[in-house]
Design a protein that fits this description.
With 300 residues, this protein is of the alpha/beta class. The chain has one domain (5-299): Ribokinase (UDP-N-acetylmuramoyl-L-alanine:D-glutamate ligase, 3-Layer(aba) Sandwich). The chain has nine helices and 13 strands. It has helices at residues 44-54, 69-81, 124-132, 143-153, 174-179, 193-203, 244-257, 262-276, 289-299; strands spanning 5-10, 15-20, 38-41, 59-65, 84-89, 96-101, 107-111, 134-139, 158-162, 182-186, 208-212, 218-222, 225-229. The strands form two sheets. Strands 5-4-1-8-9-10-11-12-13 form a nine-stranded mixed β-sheet, sandwiched between helices. Strands 3-2-6-7 form a four-stranded mixed β-sheet. The model has no long low-confidence stretch (mean pLDDT 94). Pfam families: PfkB.
Length: 300
Amino acid sequence: MERQTDVLVLGGAGVDSIVHVPELPLPYADSYPVPRIETRAGQTGDFVALGLHALGLRTHHLDLLGDDHEGELVRRLHRDRGLALTTFPLPGGTRRAVNLVGPDGRRLSLYDASRTEAADRLPVEAVRALAAASRHVHVSITQPCAEALPELGGSGVTVSTDLHDWDGSDSYHQPFADAADLVFVSTAKLADPERTMRRIVERGRARAVVATAGAEGSYLLVDGELTHTPAVAPPDPVVDSNGAGDAFAAGFLFGWLAGESPQRCARYGAITGAHACTVPATGVDPLGRAELLARAARLG
């Protein structure tokens, strides 16, 4: 059956307020003068979807959004980029976060966890229809997406997810890890990354697990073999690490869906992730297909 969409991205839509601070961690003080505080659309699902779209993949984003100013910012971002977006009401309001960005580009995200309630659901009919029209589904680790996982299991499409800074034991993340064919996770909180990666494979259906380690590159577990992919030097000064992991996932998925080797996919991810670090926190400028392939060719 011909699929109309390459990747359906579930969840992860929201808005961030960007605050540039003099250092991280930020010492206690009564107040700090900071440069202009800006609010822009874009959280993990938005960044993955926009990254895939920029790489030429037919992408559709599905999520719950509030009927508020922040929700309109998300809708406008998708309209301006020509990216398909289907939304349903989020009674608690659009998800938002405050990101503190240090001079070296490191980020501390303060995520507003009050926006989602236990009763929030992505409509089953919409998930079923859009998944049936897609080659692949990438799932954000938000509560409504957790409720949609059983529906994806019977859809016949491959599934990926990003566990972000999972500690390897928090039970909330486990259903996502178990349900995905391709799992991304950061090494930030993992005491033993290899052990966690192997446990993901043993417990679930994952055919590949990718652990990103920032400037140290990434680790790839496929067919029982663990390999390392070095980081790629950013082409311009690093100004913000926000969205780098999402960009890595988009680059990896681009190669994955094109039938490239897992090692080549990891190289693509390293390139797109490095590019994201050169984009100011207040902007959204994912790497395009032509430039990705050109940079990959130069690296060999």
